[in-house]
Amino acid sequence: MRVWYLLLALMAPNAMAAWEVNMRQGVTEISHAVYDLHMTIFWVCVAIGVVVFGVMFYSIYHHRKSRGAVSDDFHESTKLEIVWTAIPFAILVVMAIPATQVLVQMYDASDSDIDIKVMGYQWKWSYEYLGQDLGNGENLAYFSNLATPRQEVYNESEKNPNYLLEVDEPLVIPANKKVRFLISANDVIHAFWVPDFAVKKDAIPGFINEAWTNVPEPGIYRGQCAELCGEAHGYMPIVVKVVPEDEYVAWVENKRQQVAAARGITPTVASK
Ligand SMILES: [Cu+2]
Fold it and tell me: What's the pTM value of the predicted model, to 2 decimals?
């Protein structure tokens, strides 16, 4: 197996990525906490597996019928039942402590610097920047559509590296700021998923779910709708462009003017 793996890696270095079986570490403090938690629980499971299967295989081998082994009679042993209830219970409690700590952190969307309403549609996303008035009381908002050419989808031209993970208008957020997402949907259930931020929340019509992120490094981060939402579910990617704060401020102002002008609204003076 290993030989084939190496051979494949030598033949096609890009294929290595496809062989990754672990979850990605992501780029935020929370995504690292989630990864570390995942690894901790994984090793607890490995240890349990080694002990349980170790005892099992040892018993099968050393107390086999051909050796004349006679089964012990410990049916309805209260002592044993207490032990095999207490040990898993203790393990679960030990695992629940770090898990709860990470969950509490993930759910704490308070004190955000920027609030963005994310709406799922069949089949695109819209982003509304709360508090960024266009000049008529409405917030700056726009749609983000798939940008992959149809020719690539129908195999009429070669697929680019960001195939089905590219949009016309990305979500733009500043680096090193706490950004809160208010997530909902307009038609059916979608899910807003950006793996690098460890953000994955259902977008449900009539409900507003919260998630947040604070991305330290500027860059382009890609995600997808993670809830089967109909025919073009695979055609509504999420692209988040994280930029330095000053660049973000300039972008918001520019975008506000642009959207207001396109809609014939006289834009107000910069609010922030
Ligand atoms: Cu969807």
Answer: 0.84
